[in-house]
Amino acid sequence: MNDLRSLLIDCRIELRKLSRDFQKTELCERLDLAIQAQANAPRAPHTAAEVNEAAPGLAPEKGQTVSQVALAWQTAVRDLKFSDPAIYARLGEKVMRLLAAKTLVDPATEIVQLEKQVAELRHSIDTQAKDQQAMAAERDALLGSLANAVPKLKDSGDRLAVALARVAWLKAEAEKAAGAGIKPGAARAPEPQDTVPSTLLLTAAAAGAATFTREQREWCVGEAMVLTGFQLTPVELLEKGDTHIAKLILQARQGA
């Protein structure tokens, strides 16, 4: 039966070569029916035995079904060779790539591999989350230490700006103490900058980390009025707060 079916297929191929519209003729339909009938015809007992020898462990019906599916695909692809050569060529290229790769993976195996990849990605995400939590804990500990070292600078919304202001404050105090030959933290005599705030204090106040004393605030209000061309009254400046006044003075100095 296989020989007869192959002969019918070859005849159909040759007839299509001779007649472009052969697939529209009644003879083509009859050949298709005959080929399909040969494919669906019951196999002889020895054929089933051969299938079992080629694929041990499979029932005869299972082997026959697989064979029929393969033959059906073969027939459909042969039809594409004449009805749509472009698709036939693309299918041929893909088959050759799969055969060259020699790594045809069963769908069930592919699902297992994907599940393994997902598990690895989840583990990586969990590890990164733990690392971020550890870094956040170290950051909070560092910021807390700076807050304890410089309590005069108050916390504000911008934690980084306040931390940098505290570091700069500590550095300035250490340099000042080293230059004066006194120990850090020791009492010192009042200096002019106690009334005229330094750039460091203005920066800290602009970040919301420090406030002016009464004398410093009075000086800053007068300075801000001059720098803004007396556009704001002292009452208006005081209502806006130390942060706004410090920003006005710093912006004016930077633009000068």
Structure overview:
The chain has about 260 residues and is an all-alpha fold. It folds into 2 domains: about 1-110, no CATH class; about 140-255, no CATH class. It is about 75% helix and about 0% strand. Helix 4 packs across helix 5 and helix 8 (about 200-205) packs across helix 11. The model is unreliable at about 45-65 and about 185-190 (pLDDT under 50).
Secondary-structure map with pairings?
Blueprint: H1 2-18, H2 26-40, H3 45-54, H4 60-83, H5 85-101, H6 107-149, H7 159-180, H8 199-206, H9 214-227, H10 234-240, H11 242-255
Helix pairs in contact: 1-2, 3-4, 4-5, 6-7, 7-8, 8-11, 9-11
Observed structural traits:
mainly alpha, 256 residues
Proportion in helices = over 70%
Strands, total number: 0
Secondary structure tally, helices: 11
Main pleated-sheet profile: none
Counting helices, strands and paired strands, the structural category is: mainly alpha
| Rg over CA atoms | 44 Å
Order of helices and strands: HHHHHHHHHHH
Strand content: under 5%
Mean pLDDT, nearest integer? 75
Spatial gap, N to C terminus? 102 Å
